[in-house]
């Protein structure tokens, strides 16, 4: 039933799409009723429906589509069917291109834009090339996670087509200009005007070039007439005079004045008469037609040679008049048929054709005569001894020179193909045999076989379908294969169909087909398309996939058991180190004994710090820690760690730092890099119980496509930090498990097994890589690759910490938003102890009325992971109500907070739980100094 009934009809705005949303049965859509939608989605839909721009929001991992009226007009006949439906259901033709772009935004938080981007869309029943300007960005839900994608598009198809048409038109104009230049260079056309009364000629430059005369002069008609020559031996066209009595159209020969060359001229003119009817002016054009005359002469010579050669050819040669009647046959044709020349001319050739072949030959011959196109046909001709042989007749029309291109002659050749026809018959018999073999394979195969059209309708199936899936051939014929698929497999299978239709030569895909009893079987398909059909063979892999699934589940449970066992072991130790001292302190305080409490407090604090370190390592391993990536000078960072590393390694291990000056700056979190190097150094120390050398080196690395693919990285520039020891090394079995969480070869109590896991997670989250090379008794080299910072970005330099008293406040008011009562109490006590006044709220909904009030607020301190409205959304609301308000975030873990730079806006700071009072007080004072209101 619809959820839009009731007093509050949402969305409360005009428009056809808004009306459809109000009456849409959302219970049948993945989104559910609108009153259960996240507030963020309802807000963006409200904004979108009131906009004149083409806008759509695609919500959730299935990218459910909601759009406005402008977008509805753009998507054509897919509206309103795709309203509230997953995008894949109505965008199969572009899903391969669209899904990776959407995933980068939805899972990676990136934005994307483009101009005149081409898409092949089916929005009017056919695929059509369309172009769009687009801007795509992530939309955050009420929990601060990315909930969907906002798309703003503008169709530019008409503009792009207009631009393309203009370019094509300009190209044609250039080509026409070039053709005109070529024509002029080859002789071109000349223009003249003959004044009959004065017998003078006014000529163009083209006219003068044709006749070889100097330009710019007036000539008497007799000067041109003197260039005329007679070519009696040349069967040319019409002759005439170039004076007042000459014919308007004629052809004649001249000897060109400039070089004496003989040229043929085509002359066309019109006479102008005065009021008495007397001719007074002739004007017209002349053209050099020497090349055409030469071609005619060559053709006549070729025809003469043809008749001589035809008498010597083994094939049967003949010619025909324009109406198709034979007017000449070769001697070989007469000898073959045993008929005289006169018997074969006209329509006599029909007497030589086999009666069964005559109707087709006659019909094709009349078609060729009507269309003036070449004729080709196979037929049996009777030999003089009564035998019939197969001949291939090929006939070519020789076109005339008149404007209607009337055929003046037909030239035909009959070639003996009797042996080829016999070979074809033998081949056909072989094909029949092979077809029988194929049919036996079709009938007996245990794999199911399928022939379907390119839309997926079943055209033929083999008997294995009934044995494997229970369906008979009659039940399957004409049925769309998609109707048998498991719903989750429809989209990938449809995608493969689209690829095959676009010309992909073959495809391999797995999907699940429904048995007649309603169960599903897993099939592995090999499919090949031809011009109109799809041929596929499917093998039942149900048992194999079930076995693989059981194996994966077993391996997963083993890994989970190892992980939970390691966490339980370490946390029980840490909790004992916290709860034990607290219990002892409570007992002593109850007895009034306060001496010696400090060592219990120190022990509890130390265990708490170890617990925080363990949590940080788990987050690093899972790539969920909050990073603060910045350009950092790798060489200076390692140099600043020198003293710490020497104290950690002890006297029996020699430390050698070998920086490469060309290494430059890496882009990453300096604190996490320090922790990673320290972890690697400790591992190396423990691998050298008898002493040895630890070498830390740096270098600049450029990975090309091949190296990057081998290391599973993106091509580009990297900073490499290598930690090399001369210790005991690792066997291949141990090396394969080195990054597994809680895997360690150290004795119980001497390692958590999270060190390398933390380094691995940090490298992956930083878009880098960690690589290990090791061999027993040789040593181990761990290389950490981090992306290199762009040139010009300032690199952070490590700075020494300074002890200082806690900074005090001056009575400023701090609003604390924290849902954990114990943490809230602690933060309020710390702030009040530092001299600040406090307000507090247990969640975002309680904080909003305080922010909307007239109360003074100088700083907002908020947890990130609040129930309902998260801390980042509370901050946005606070900035809208109180511009410039400084904000400090506290976070234990927030899935969408991966890097500080992506999460924090100007005037915002972040501190990770658990934190020390010193760090918290310093950050509060730093935020206060940045106050703008």
UniProtKB/TrEMBL annotation:
Entry EC no(s): 2.7.13.3
UniProtKB keywords: ATP-binding, Kinase, Nucleotide-binding, Phosphoprotein, Transferase, Two-component regulatory system
Chain positions found as 4-aspartylphosphate: 863
Ranges for domain PAC: 248-301, 375-429
Catalysis: reaction(s): ATP + protein L-histidine = ADP + protein N-phospho-L-histidine
Domain Histidine kinase: 566-790
Pfam families per record: HATPase_c, HisKA, PAS, PAS_3, Response_reg
Span of domain Response regulatory: 813-928
SUPFAM superfamilies according to UniProt: ATPase domain of HSP90 chaperone/DNA topoisomerase II/histidine kinase (SSF55874), CheY-like (SSF52172), Homodimeric domain of signal transducing histidine kinase (SSF47384), PYP-like sensor domain (PAS domain) (SSF55785)
Domain PAS per the UniProt entry, residue ranges: 302-372, 449-489
Name used for this protein in its record: histidine kinase
Organism lineage: Bacteria, Pseudomonadati, Pseudomonadota, Betaproteobacteria, Burkholderiales
